[in-house]
Amino acid sequence: MTIQGDVLSILYGIPLLFLNPVFYLFLLLIYLHYRKQMNLERQLFAARIQTPILQTLRSVGMGLAGGVLISVLAAGLGVVIQAQDLYLVWALALILALFRLRFLCFAYAVGSLTLLHGIALITPVASEGSGWLGELWTMVGQAKPLPLLALVAIMHLIEAMLVRWNGGRDASPLFVEGKRGRIVGSYLLHSFWLTPLFLFVQMEPGAIQGALYPGWPFFWPEATSFGLMLLPSVTGFSDMTQTTIPYKKAVQIAKQLTLYAVALLALTALSAWLYPLILLAALFAIIGHEGMFFWSQYQERQRSPFFIQSSRGVKVMAAIPGTRAEEIGILPGEIIIKVNGIPVRHKEDLYPALQANSAFCKMEVLTYSGEIKFVQCAVYAGNHHQLGIIVVPDATTRVYVDLSRSSVIQLIKQKLERMNIGA
């Protein structure tokens, strides 16, 4: 099997990726999501913790590396898809994202397409005379969902690697309403990566013939003529923690994603031998993905909140980027015990203790692992009044965010309601 010419055509076609409107649509959704996080931070802390542009660029950079790994694994495992199926997946993903941004993940779109495919096989509609809806339903019936499910499993396997690599770097601190109406600190972990993929697609006779190895392509043995296609896609995850620091939560999520990906790939492989199992694989793609989300929420409810006041000192929620707090290495979850030799127990104690020495600051800090560390820095005019330290909420905190309006549709309704009130 010779693919040199097709590879060269892909290399020449890479610039065309930037002419694909789906690329920019995904990029816009990612940027708007990160911008929404930044706006929440500003409302709560009058400061920006994350930078949407930087986060979006990071999503592209990490996504490129992830896309290469996904492409290599997909080719090696024998994933060959139909180009028209990708259009259906893109459309479903964008529609589902209107209800919850996490539904932008292809697990939901491919799982839904597989179930619709099963219905279309039972209730076919003649495309002639039935308009574009009939033609669309015929496309659903002609879909090849098995390789798409395998692709989703591979994408989540690499996503687990990206989550571990990112380590909660894009997490945003928030104040939310906890149990019994108590306001607690929380971290919103949302990361999305734009992952351009090089995939084998079924082509008309005259394209690449043969197989990479005997039995290839495993997930679509009937395919005999192939081409390489470059296409944009997005991977990502969404979660929130009140009970641990972002890095530790990211490690937990990476482990869950790995188990999910391996289980889905196993079910998809079994479906290649016993095709009716594909419905089980499709349900697992959707329910298993949602199950990870709700299992995480259940674990959060069973544990005590971590970002609350401590009797040992002032607990840190976050350090504002570019401030002295970040420069000296103050981290989320650490407890400031003394400032300039003065014990501090409440956030009201922090500023007077900082003013005890107007030119220099020394702190005694209890780390997340329970060790004592000493940090110090010079203090200059114009520095943040708390050196950029954001502390956890206490009994006097009244401002928090309501995450119940988390879908695009709900946000649009909220905007319209405000416009009507203003009119």
Task: Quickly list its features.
disordered C terminus, elongated, disordered N terminus, 17% strand, six-stranded antiparallel sheet, 49% helix, four-stranded mixed sheet
Can you describe this structure?
The protein has 423 residues and is an alpha+beta fold. The protein has helices spanning 4-13, 21-45, 52-77, 83-97, 106-122, 131-141, 145-166, 246-273, 278-302, 324-327, 347-355, 408-422, and strands spanning 80-81, 172-177, 183-194, 197-202, 208-209, 225-231, 234-241, 314-319, 335-339, 342-343, 360-366, 372-378, 389-391. Strands 8, 9, 10, 11, 12 and 13 form a six-stranded antiparallel beta sheet that branches. A four-stranded mixed beta sheet has the order 1-4-6-5. Mean pLDDT is 83; it is low at 1-6 and 405-423.
Secondary-structure-derived class: alpha+beta
Uncertain segments of ≥5 residues (pLDDT<50)? 1-6, 405-423
Helix count, DSSP H or I runs of 4 or more residues: 12
Task: Report the β-strand fraction as a percent range.
Answer: 15-25%
Report mean pLDDT, rounded to a whole number: 83
Helix content: 40-55%
Please summarize the sheet with the most strands.
6 strands, antiparallel
| Shape estimate | elongated
The ordered string of helix (H) and strand (E) elements is HHHEHHHHEEEEEEHHEHEEHEEEH
Radius of gyration: 25 Å
Tally the beta strands.
Answer: 13
| Distance between the amino and carboxyl termini | 67 Å
Task: Put the structure in a nutshell.
The chain is an alpha+beta fold and 423 residues long. 49% of the residues lie in helices and 17% in strands. The strands form three sheets. Strands 8, 9, 10, 11, 12 and 13 form a six-stranded antiparallel sheet that branches.
